[in-house]
Design brief:
The chain is α+β, with helices and mostly antiparallel strands. The chain is built from three helices and nine strands. The chain has a domain of 86 residues: Lipoxygenase-1 (Sandwich). The strands form two sheets. Strands 1, 2, 5, 7 and 8 form a five-stranded antiparallel beta sheet that branches. A four-stranded antiparallel beta sheet has the order 4-3-6-9, with no helix packed on it. Helix 2 runs antiparallel to helix 3. 23% of the residues are buried.
Length: 190
């Protein structure tokens, strides 16, 4: 019969000697917290970009080709300004002009009305020109309007022949335009 002396005995490890605190520990701790905080900021910054105000369904659009953004809708203005293909200082100027009601912002949503073959158009409003390649998916383009003049849509490149096939999305559906040749222009009146 086994006795109490035959049972295995647990040995506790010896305590580790106390470590000397490093003079670099506070700096390393701050660096670690900064990296974690920066990562959290970067992750949340990417998630909170103003994409929710970019038109993505018919309910987001007006019955007209141009859907205007209210200057009182700060998130909507920020989304449209962020989508403009201009330098950041010019974006800030446009945003302030919209808030001050000296300029208007709107969206035009483009679609290739036939086969998406790389057709390209240039959208010109108030001196600002933005080129886009048409696809079957919605392509929202922000336009800044300093006056009541028309928005020009110029056919730039015919993807694979057959003409540039452009359509506009509205709350009422898709509005196909006539087939364009490179250099031809249509005007959209806001």
């Amino acid at each position: 019969m086994p006795s109490a002396d035959d049972e295995p005995q647990l040995e506790l490890p010896l305590p580790l000697p106390a470590r000397q605190s490093s003079r670099h520990a506070p700096a390393l701790l701050l660096l670690l917290l900064g990296l974690i905080g920066g990562g959290v900021y970067a992750a949340t910054d990417a998630d909170t970009r103003p994409t929710a105000k970019i038109p993505s369904r018919p309910e987001d659009l007006s019955a007209n080709v141009v859907t205007f953004v209210s200057p009182d809708d700060r998130a909507g203005v920020a989304s449209a300004v962020a989508a403009l293909k201009v330098a950041p200082p010019q974006r800030a100027e446009i945003e302030q002009a919209v808030i001050d009601r000296r300029q208007r912002l709107g969206w035009i949503v483009f679609i290739d009305s036939m086969d998406p073959d790389g057709d390209t158009v240039a959208v010109e409003a108030s001196g600002l020109t933005q080129q886009i390649v048409l696809t079957k998916a919605w392509t929202p383009v922000a336009v800044a309007l300093a006056d009541s003049g028309p928005i020009g849509v110029t056919a730039v490149r015919d993807g694979q022949g057959g003409g540039i096939t452009v359509a506009f999305a509205t709350s009422g559906g898709t509005m196909p335009m006539r087939i364009l040749r490179p250099g031809e222009r249509i005007d959209v009146v806001p």
